[in-house]
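Just wondering, does anyone understand these tokens?
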Amino acid sequence: MKKSVGAKTLLFPTPVLLVGTYDHEGKPNLMNAAWGGICSSHPPSIAVSLRKERHSFAAIVERKAFTIGIPSEARMKEADYVGIFSGRDTDKFAATGLTPVRSDLVDAPYAAEVPIVLECRLLHTLELGIHTQFVGEIVDVKADIAVLGEDGLPDILKIKPLVFDTAHRGYHGIGPFLGQAFSVGKKL
């Protein structure tokens, strides 16, 4: 039996995404966003939704670019910090000790200490209630060598990405490998 809990933004889990932008003065900024994910395979694209009042909103509109960093469990405090304070009033890179790196492909920064970075060129915007969804074409993915598996691709267990619990507003890690996708179901 199920009980209705109402229309809420509950999805388990959601990613912790660090959105990197340059503001109108060229100052690098990061913000924590949980409303996002892959939205197209071709072209490879990611969507992230922000409110208009967020400092990063105007930066994405102006620069037509952003980065998405996937923070590891080891960077939980820094990831949380950049979601608490505004880049209008705070130099988040200085406050967290993270190192800004200028993307060589898009007009946006990322944090050197984040193991996975998606560099994105703005493709579309869509107004959705109090949020605007920004769809970015992923022009490159950069990964620390330490998080790559034997196949040369990022290994989720080496990345140890943070995930967000929308119901209880908490951070969690990733558990062990359970089974191969597009394979375990064939055993039914």
Summary: The chain has one domain: 14-187. The first strand starts at residue 14 and ends at 15.
